[in-house]
Each structure stands twice: as structure tokens, then as C-alpha cells.
Amino acid sequence: MKNKILLSSIYLFLIFGCSPSKSELFKETDSFVESLQTTYESYGMLGGSEYTKTTSDGLYTITPIGRLINVKIQKVAENGEYEDLKQDLKDHYQGNTKVNDVYICQAGTIMIDCRN
Question: What is the pTM (predicted TM-score) of this model?
Fold first, then answer.
């Protein structure tokens, strides 16, 4: 019973606690994660730049590269902002077997790893 209450609280937080931009970001990244299971084996070594999505407020750009999904903040961002975004995405994909890891890559952007 406590687990159901905790789980319900987490879902409510995610629904109401996320900014509209992050909700849209999660929707777009979810779409790419799912497409790597259903539609595409990979977006290719050079990436799927023709598939790049930008949130409606222009804050995030999402680009698939192979079986990775790159998320970039489209403003001058402090390291802490990328750390926060990484943690938000890790929390969002926690328990999702389609996602192996979420990390900050050396280029300074976030990668969602969906490699087999």
C-alpha cells in the first residue's frame, strides 16, 4: 500500500512538478526511445539530423545519433543545469529497460544510451 502511495506521489510530481518545456522534452525523448525499439535499428553513425526536434520554447534540441539520443540546452548553461537535466532524465527513465544510461558526454551535452 505504501509503495502505491509513493508511486502515485512520484507520478503526480512528474506531471505537475515539471516545467512545460521538460514535459515536452520527455515526450520527444520518449518518442525517440520508442522508435529505436519499433521503427529504426539505428539513426546511423552520422546521426539523424533530419530528425532533430526542438521544444516549442526553443530551450532543448534533441538529436538521435546511432542508438544514442543527444539532448542539448539551447542557451548558455552552467554545469549545474546539465547536472540537473541529467538527473531529471535519469529519474524519468529509471526502470525503463530500453535505456541503459543517461550521462553527460565530453561535448557537454546529455546522452540517452539505448544501445543493445
Answer: 0.79
